[in-house]
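[audit] Reproducing an earlier prediction to check determinism. Same input, same settings, fresh worker. If the tokens differ from the archived copy the diff job will pick it up downstream; this log only records the rerun itself.
[audit] input (141 residues):
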Amino acid sequence: MKNAGIIAEYDPFHAGHAWQIAEARRQGAEAVAVCMSGDVTQRGGAALLPPSVRAAAALGCGADLVLCLPNPYACLSAEGFAAAGVAILSALPAVDTLVFGAETPDTAALERTAGALRSEGFSAALARSLAGGAPFAAARA
């Protein structure tokens, strides 16, 4: 890892976010770029704090660059939010690693979940559940 990218909302920026930036540095990142949501959050609500305040917190805790994820992309699903952030960070010539936070430290569980979501049968099963009237979150689970 030479240059790390993080996709975030930082709404609000907290100690876990500061730890993540510091940990990227400890693991070898020479620079950390953040793609952060602007005035709105992933579910379309207004951000608690203005982007300038959240960006200043990230910069003050070790980020080298904070880019804004435009509002139309910030309001998308988790997949859309992440895809837009990846596209923006990928446009930077030197970002070679994505760093992300998770609710669990169990890497194997995260890999199994990613595998299930990318499997051939997942889309069909999701479509069946949605057609049966299940809300998206329940159908996806």
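[audit] rerun output stored. Observation attached for the diff report: The CA atoms of residues 51 and 78 lie 19 Å apart.
[audit] end
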